[in-house]
Amino acid sequence: MKAKILIAAIFFSGMISAQQTQKKTEETKTIEEVKLSKKVFVKKSDRFVYDVASSPIAKGTNSFNLLQQTPMLSSTDGKTFKIMGKSNVVFYINGKRTLMDAEAITEMLKNTPSENIQRIEVVTVPGSEFQVEANEGVINIVMKKSKTNGYNGTLKMSNSQTFYNNPSSGIALNARQNKWSFSTNFNMGSWREREKYTLTNGNDTFQNNSLGTMDDPNKNYGGSVNIDYEINKKQNLGFSYNMRYNKSFGSVLDMTNFENGVLSNRTVNQEDAQTRNHNFNLNYEIKTDTLGSKLTSNISYLWFNRDKVSLGESFPLKADGRYSAFQQAVPQIINNYAANIDYIKKFRKESTLAIGTSYNHTNTDSDTRQNDFDGTQFVTNNTLSNHFIYKENIIGAYATFEKKFSDRFSAKVGTRFEATLSTGDVVGKPDIGFERNYNNLLPYATLNYAINDNNNITYSFSSRVRRPGFGQLNPSRTYFTPNNYIQNNPFMQASKNYNQEINYMYKNAFYANLSFNFAENAYGQLPLQGVETKLVRDENGNPTYDADGNLIKVTTKFLRYIRTNYGNNKQLGLTLGMNKAWFGDIWTTNYSANFEYAIYKGSVTKDPTSQQIPGDTEELQPYTIDVKTLNTFFQANNMIRLSAKKDWYLGVNYWLMPTREMEIGKLHTQQSLDLNIKKIMGNFTFLVELNDIFNQNIDDVRTIQSNGSYNTVRSFQYRREFNINVTYNFGNQKLKKAREVKSANDAIRSRT
User: Fold this and answer.
1) Residue 250 — left, alpha, or beta (φ > 0 → left; ψ -120 to 50 → alpha)?
2) 543, 580, 681, 689 - which has most CB atoms within 10 Å?
């Protein structure tokens, strides 16, 4: 009997064991099936998530190229990104805003291997906790992490051939030992640009034409140091330092000018400029519970210095012409002190409360000096020489609450309050100055509903303030020719922006986005034509007379691009897109089409920066904006795996932007076909790129007013480019990088 029981026990045990084995096998198969069908592009509560680690595209390239393949993102100039073809971008890394200016960010992205990235998050309507302006969107790059001690690094070398040959190189190092994390990078390169200009302006009675080129040699050096110390399991202390130095000595703009078809003069502007940018940040973080609640604080200091000196000369090419020249020095020094405190409270029922406060103090000093040649020597032009000092204080506070009501429905609401106090003064010129104090309450809300596993819909609303850049407020000029120039304006005011979006996603591959943006008191860089009449004066500044006793006058027609507020604009946009892999990830596609109906309305009738010496006069032709237009943008990115070993890839990318209208005029059709081929050999990656194969990426803006006035700006920038890139990864590639931290002066960086 015992034997039978024993046999039965063994039998049932075997059955149970077999069932468990079968169950484990089924579970294993299930897990494998989930892994094979892992979603690469998904919609979360307030953002789109591109899981780079699960995509075949993210192999052996750099972060910039990877972003170009990311759904909803586009780059038409190889330097900057836009979201859905319209919104400007602010970069975050691991949820913390980057501390670098736009050029430094581009260099950083091009020197960061794509293998270091876990995912890319695109936030089309940022919440109240983000420090952004206007309708800016956010790109958050989440880096891969590991607890492994050791070190790793990346060495990158590239060579680019456009009109000139431009080499560059960079190195990045990361180290981790127990509680200490350290990362640093350094990159350097030369970039010499050639740009060909065609400028035209006039009306039915006269015409000015200018033809010429600009050569701009640049030496770039940049780098950063990040140190993070884990005090204990709950507390971290971090320090970061970022720097960038750009040297552009010997830049030359050479233009030949015609008046009514007759050679008038040749103007040559020579410029030496250098930019230095240093940013320091100290960060402290403490976790307050096991749910993920934490308190963070930052103090930051930013120092930005740009020195620019130029010599502009005009050589006569007609019998009655005369030589003229000016010297100009336009320095700008920015000091920013900032601090912020943020607290995130996590609750057990999948809800989060975030509150924070910030303070920014900025002081800019711009001592612009201009000297004009009077025939024998250079004398100070007191009208165009301005020592402009701008001070700004921004006090901010925000609160957001996010709650997941069910597996399908979640919501997030919040508001941000900003108090801005600013003053601008020109030393010795009390008429050019202002004091502004204004407050803004900026609400935000988003609702996300997953209809089922294949359908998701989201609604978002936000309001933001757009403040002018510090350089745009400095009342200085940038000359194309003596009579064609950009005029900055210290009297520009901030604009208010309201943004709404409805987004629908199907099967995490197809999406549609409907958006509406309204800008109140919008500003831009607008062309003003006019006539300036000046008295000819002697060396003592006294008017001169002809033989008949009449005052001698000189009349000049000019085109002045002034930065100023003009009115309101509205934009209704629709984006349709697809991100999908085919044939077992052999062919990966990222296609999108953007349609935008825009209304720009306003006018500019005067130049508030104009200062006339008694006896001189100036007449401006009003510039009226009344534009209703449909703008479109199309993009198709393809990545094809050429080998079963996954070591050869072919990229075929194309974008088309048909003629579109803007506040400044009509931008004519632009397009670009780009090809690249990539070979992976162990730790080495070789990438060859050919961009803008047919030389169709040209800036051509034309403006026609109802009164017959017109102007055109055609800029050919030689964007056809042949690149060879070699990247070598060494060390432990699973190493965790130093903790990226948020800087207190995030909002200031984009305005330098």
Assistant:
1) left
2) 689
